[in-house]
Amino acid sequence: MNSLLPRVARGDRAALREIYEAQASRLFGIALAILRDRDAAADALHDAFVKVARAAGQFDPARGSAEAWLAAIVRHAALDLARARGREIPAEGLPEPAEEATQLHSLASAQDGVRLRECLATLEEKNRTEILLAFVNGLSHPQVAARLDVPLGTAKAWIRRGLLSLRECLA
Amino acid sequence: MTPEERDALAGEYVLGTLDAREAAALRARLASDPALREAVEAWERRLHPLAALAAPERPPPGLLNRIESTLDAARPRRRALLWPALTAASAAVAAGLALLLLIRPEPSPLMTVLLTESDQPAWLVEARGGAISLAAVNPRGIAPDRVAELWALPQGATAPTSLGLIPTEGRVTVPPGRIRPEAGMLIEITLEPPGGSPTGRPTGPILFIGRLMPARGT
Q1: B103 touches chain A (CB under 8 A)
Q2: Nearest to residue A69, comparing CAs of A83, A55, A50, A79?
Q3: What ipTM does this complex have?
Q4: Distance from CA of B95 to the nearest CA of A (A)
Q5: Nearest-by-Cβ selection for A136 from B14, B23, B50
Q6: A-interface mutation test, from B2, B26, B67, most A Cβ less than 10 A away
Q7: Domain B108-214, what fold?
């Protein structure tokens, strides 16, 4: 995958198709978790791949894997669409709190996921829940606050505290 | 902004909780704020494993075609200017050369402008008499622990040839002999570890890229 992106940067369409074939399902899943609407998720994946074709030259393997780079582009494309829609996205399809344990379990099988899971486990449950909901499901500060039934400022402060603890734990 | 605030903001951006205005403001600062860029990259690395929590799902059929259509439609903006111009220029140069050969034996120089990712001109490149010279028009620094390496990829070649390390500003001349400049050749500058690419091929991101073409009106 790392060798495909430089080819994309030189305008090699076959390399772009190869990336799409290998990554589209994973990346579509990431967009769908945030947008919970197949048409919108397809729009996000479209925007992301157009960006990939244009920005492939900026990929720097010294700073992370191609998979992570692609996922970040797709997430931000999906988040941009979610913002453009005022994040009026149905809450249905969001994981129930009980599912989070299973979610975290699957994290351990992900590359680099073990350490992150251990660090997430050290967080207070409400901080952990918010971080997962925001990252995986694209919930905004107000949405997190509404879901946990706390004032906006409290939700923001919890998220900041959660991020800070994570950073210290992962350092 | 304190380093703590910057890091918290970068974390919230990567997490996705910033609203549209805050996210746009942060993005606007990224290009000119290396510390913020570093902080965002660090958060992307930390949180990336969470992306595995989203269940894979097959995208609708036809999406790849739609992506390619968009790219084809976008291409004229960047390329159509280049290719027809290149063909027309080649014909004109060929015709002109026949007339000019007696008067001016030196072949027409090849030129290109290397652009940044935001399409700003960064380097003027001119190939004349087998030498390639570059002049920075929009210098920008790179990380102190990295170097810029110049490459040329002749049309049809599978791997670029290194033309050596270059300073990130000022003027550079590659003497004749390293490579024979020709129309259609890609010239690119990549970011590499100190001493240059250890593999003989570009390993870092492409900072600038452009394609040599005959200069008209010369």
Answers
A1: no
A2: A55
A3: 0.90
A4: 30
A5: B50
A6: B67
A7: Immunoglobulin-like (2.60.40)
